[in-house]
Amino acid sequence: MTSLTALRRGALAAFAALTLSAATAQAAGTDCGDGPLIVFAAASMTDAVGEFADAFTSDTGCPVSVSVASSSTLARQIAEGAPAGVYISANRSWVEWLGENAPERLAGEPMVIARNGLVVASKSTDSADIADLLSSRFAMGDPTNVPAGIYAKAALETLGIWDAVSANAAFAENVRVALAMAARGEVGAAIVYSTDARMQPDLAVAYRFDPASHPEIAYEAVLLTGGGEVGQAFLDRLNASEGQAILARYGFLPGGEAGQG
Predict the structure, then answer these.
(1) Quick one: pLDDT at residue 257?
(2) Whether 146 and 157 share a structural domain
């Protein structure tokens, strides 16, 4: 009898939770659609987008599932039919690639939701000379496809040291992997976004790249087919004061179109 009572109470609690979630969504004027909104986001946005997704669900009652990886990996998965409703890329190029290779997946106009800086993170800050910092093994994103790696290679080429240090580079599948390699001591340093360096207490910023040394680090987000009303609401809130405040707490610079070039 006790077991049956517990089951009944559990069922009632679950029903109440679903009713409350539906009521919250209705009050917020958002159609949650069928199932959770699936958001594909660049690995460097793991923590910020995760927090925003929780806040969005709390406010609207609409569940959100966030999947993070390299922007290139996510773009290819979307092109192959992955059921994502929102895509957030760490550069414009992969959104453009998606538009060229799977235009049917795009359901809205891309928007720049944030910007970032590029740094060298290391356990040692004894030297501020970039060539010295990268004179031994270091990690960076794969420059053939990972945005952080593309920016890093461009910056090192601008400084005229790519040919001298590239043999020391360990190419990672995304920027968070490069950061973890430095934190574990597998490499002496990692070229990462400034926001990533903030997430690892065992590392410090040893060098900051001049923004003029590489293409602008702009995060572009776009609504995908299947994202529907809830996907658009997610993007609108992320690009509004609520979302921008969360991104700013993680060190991201403002989005919008100003400053492009």
Answers:
(1) 62
(2) yes
Number of H helices, E strands in the chain: 11, 11
pLDDT tens digit sequence for 212-233: 999 999 999 999 999 999 999 9
Residues 201 and 240 reside in one and the same domain: no
Q: Are 89 and 75 in contact (CB under 8 A)?
A: yes
Bridge partner list, 171: 140
Residue 217 contacts residue 193 (beta carbons within 8 Å): yes
- H or E element, residue 222: strand 218-223
Give one word for 139, left, alpha or beta, with left for phi > 0 and alpha for psi -120 to 50. beta
| Tally of domains within the chain | 2
Surface-to-core class of residue 156, CB atoms within 10 Å of its CB (0-12 exposed, 13-18 middle, 19+ buried): buried
Q: Are strands 253-254 and 111-115 parallel, antiparallel or unpaired?
A: antiparallel
Same domain? For 226 and 164 the reply is: no
Report how far residue 96's alpha carbon sits from residue 169's, in angstroms, rounded to the nearest whole number: 28
Whether residues 41 and 74 fall in one domain? yes
Residue 176 falls within a domain, yes or no? yes
Name residues of the chain where pLDDT drops below 70: 1-29, 126-127, 257-261
By residue range, what is the domain housing residue 192? 118-213
Indicate whether 28 and 80 sit together in one domain: yes
> Residue 39 and residue 74: Cα distance in Å, rounded?
10
Q: At CA 173, angle to CA 171 and CA 174, rounded to 5?
A: 105
Measure Cα distances from 193 to 6, 207, 224, 259 in Å: 50, 11, 26, 18
